[in-house]
Design brief:
14% strand; 3 domains; alpha+beta; Nuclear Transport Factor 2, Chain: A; seven-stranded mixed beta sheet; 59% helix; 14 helices; Arc Repressor Mutant, subunit A
């Protein structure tokens, strides 16, 4: 009982911070409250055994819940941004406090909230956690299911859009699409030299456990080795948006089985992640491109 009370006290001491994290990610006061409440339920069930940094662990839980909510919202094509402007139009029927909403939005800036809403879920989470709450990328990486380098790129891309550089994703996605399309064409055609041109010398191919079970190698390093791995393959992979970035997916019968997530820097592919875990795939925002 004393442990439960101690945990509850610690959670309450962090509630303001956790709600701030959730609000910046979700742009919605009511959804932020839901995320924090869900975090408490998960924390109280799992306990804190082996947790060294309780505050950081709480932030991680809230971030994962928010990412799930953002992806679910995106998959339903919903827009949720109950900012003060929206609240002033609908009144207080949903139980929110307009004054409290205004204070929250003022602390961030309404313009920033609007821009954040346009980011892909993983971009938004990476940007908020790093740029607003100074979380290191090695801690952000497992939350968004990417490597630290890929998480850094997500935050960098989000930062450019927030700052008004490539304010819309079109330019960035067009470049990504050109690189990924060229990679898939070279892979299908067995063009080893063309693959080398597209790959960074230090490129890394990583596969999750589910992908390894169906024959993928857990990790391959170097342009030559990765080119050899893909040469003559990826024949059935289709171009797709993966959490807002251009990637590819193998989806027999329209059901995603393996996702290819690319990290591209300076026109070169620096990382490819093969994702096949069904639960993980279900949480991705996937759109197959024509």
């Amino acid at each position: 009982m004393e442990d439960d009370e101690w945990l509850a006290d610690r959670f309450e001491a962090n509630r303001t911070h956790l709600r701030a994290v959730a609000f910046r990610m979700l742009g919605s006061s009511s959804e932020a409250d839901d995320a924090v409440q869900e975090a408490w339920i998960r924390l109280s069930r799992s306990g804190t055994t082996g947790v060294e940094n309780l505050g950081g662990w709480m932030t991680t839980i809230v971030a994962r819940i928010c990412l799930d909510m953002l992806r679910s919202r995106k998959s339903r094509r919903e827009e949720s941004l109950d900012t003060p402007l929206a609240d002033s139009a609908v009144g207080d029927e949903d139980g929110t406090d307009p004054e409290r909403e205004a204070l929250l939005a003022d602390s961030i800036g309404l313009a920033l909230l609007v821009v954040l809403k346009r980011l892909a879920p993983a971009e938004r989470v990476a940007f908020v956690l790093h740029d607003m709450f100074d979380l290191p990328f090695d801690e952000i990486a497992p939350i968004v299911g990417r490597s630290p380098a890929a998480a850094r790129q997500l935050a960098s891309r989000a930062r450019r859009r927030v700052q008004g550089v490539d304010a819309t994703p079109d330019a960035d996605r067009t470049h990504q699409r050109q690189v990924v399309e060229a990679f898939l064409a070279a892979s299908r055609g067995g063009d080893f030299d063309a693959l080398l041109v597209l790959l960074d010398p230090g490129v890394v191919l990583r596969a999750d456990e589910a992908a390894v079970l169906v024959g993928a190698t857990k990790e391959v390093r170097g342009a030559a080795a990765v080119a050899e791995t893909f040469s003559g393959r990826a024949r059935v992979a289709k171009l797709a948006l993966v959490d807002g970035s251009v990637g590819a997916v193998w989806a027999p019968g329209g059901e995603p089985r393996v996702v290819f997530a690319f990290t591209i820097e300076g026109g070169k592919i620096v990382e490819i992640a093969l994702l096949a875990d069904p639960e993980r795939l279900s949480r991705l925002a996937l759109t197959i491109l024509s």
